[in-house]
Amino acid sequence: MIGRLNHVAIAVPDLAAARAMYRDALGATVTEPEDLPAHGVTVVFVELDNSKIELLHPLGEGSPIQSFLDKNPSGGMHHVCYEVSDILAARDRLVAQGARVLGDGEPKNGAHDKPVLFLHPKDFAGTLVELEQV
Ligand code: CO
User: Fold this and answer.
1) Ligand 1 midpoint to CA 88 (Å)
2) N or C: which end of the chain has fewer CB within 10 A?
3) What CATH number is attached to the domain comprising 95?
4) Which of 54, 83, 130, 132 is catalytic?
5) How do beta strands 41-47 and 52-58 pair?
6) pLDDT digit string (tens) for 67-115?
7) Which run of H or E residues covers position 64?
8) Count of structural domains, the chain
């Protein structure tokens, strides 16, 4: 059911420093920071040949990234994002198998303006999973 790895997301306490590290030390192509108020994050994408890294930093009050950074002050891997062709069919299949979808269970538009859902980490080997319809 899942297709390509769309991105791996890393929560970072200092977005400018993380962006510069990927650009300068690792020699990667990085995007300009983009605020996503609906998701409570500012994102930078590191563009790799075969996938992307999403650098996440809290934006505004009650950002879902803030509690993660409180527990992981130097940052860390936050989620992995897999592509699916039909997000509602994927959701229904996973729910039928007992998986928990976060939030109200309805897809929201993510960083690429495509529908996304998040799945409970306890159902997926301790890893928060994002599904993105492409
Ligand atoms: Co993501």
Assistant:
1) 18
2) N
3) 3.10.180.10
4) 130
5) antiparallel
6) 999 999 999 999 999 999 999 999 999 999 999 999 999 999 877 789 9
7) helix 64-71
8) 1
